[in-house]
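quick one, 406 residues, struct below
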Amino acid sequence: MRLFVGDDWAEDHHDVEVMDGNGRRLANARLPEGAAGMARLHALVGEAAGDDDEVEVLIGIETDRGPWVRALVAAGYAVFAVNPLQAARFRDRLGVSGAKSDAGDAHVLADMVRTHAHELRPVAGDSPQAEAVKVVTRTHKTLIWERTRHTQRLRHALRDYFPAALAAFGDLDATDALTLLAKAPTPRAAARLTLAQISAALKKARRRNVQDKASAIQAELRAEHLGQPEIVTAAYASSVQALIAVLTVLNEQIKTLQGQVEAHFGAHPAAEIILSQPGLGQVLGARVLAEFGDDPDRYASAKARRNYAGTSPITRASGKKKTALARFIHNDRLIDALLTQAYAALTCSPGARAYYDRQRARSSGHNAALRQLANRLVGILHGCLKTGTLYDETTAWSHHAENVAA
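---
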């Protein structure tokens, strides 16, 4: 006997529906988050199963992480993480009115696992070590994105009242720039900074050619620029000091968390194989491991791993027209790491460089060639992980070298 459960998860509750193989609703309920809700779900499944001891339960839910999902997997249920976009499109098949409710979403998810379980991806059985790597790497990357956002806000504010600072400082989120801006957040105060004060900030940030850079910064800060009225300048200065405080904390926490990323990643059994890949270091390798996971049965082939990565193209065919296009629906964190790896591999792997150059020679643009190189590197990584072998430059690119020679 097979039972199909749709679980529409919200922050503090779960709307669930249990249906049989014919699509008939057997039970539905709104369950609280936590152990009490999980116990009630087990009871609903037990009531629907009756006296049948051979019951297979398939659950569709729009998330792949958290204690609730882990408890479902531990209970022996087959759990499928459904992409919200897939669920939305499936909902349109059942009705075109646009109506939506949590109970209705639970019904859609249950029906999806009933009819399309063979086309859905089960929740990966990643190890606790891989889960730990994912937690710290995602937080680390999120903080970096937040730093970029706050740096842009700082840049926009300075452009509006203190353009000399933009000319003086190349990296606004660097330690020396933040130190000097915190000390002198207005054009008038910045113009009074001495060479000794500027040099001290540069030395603390371990800059080279301190004297020359200090002189250049002082000259820019004392040059004539357009400004704002004094009261407006003071208001901007207060806002900038708040942004500087946030950026200072972000820099400290990013550095601290990087140590945690390296520690957790270094303790993972697959770290040595991943670090042997061209273009991957501790942080980038940790991101790749975190987003791919370490479930050995998750990817049936290199093609499946490439499709998940979003590096492989998609084909659109209609009539006599057939085109290959880049995938725009993908894991943003993973594709970012893989493209960064591909770019770094150009300088450390002769095989990667030759492969990239061949794509450019075929009239591919830089981004397209880099994506194709990333696609190839994903296949190489898959082979190394499957066989438990380290990357070898000659073996990795021998097939492509033979094709060129032919």
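Residues 265 and 271 are 6 Å apart (CA to CA).
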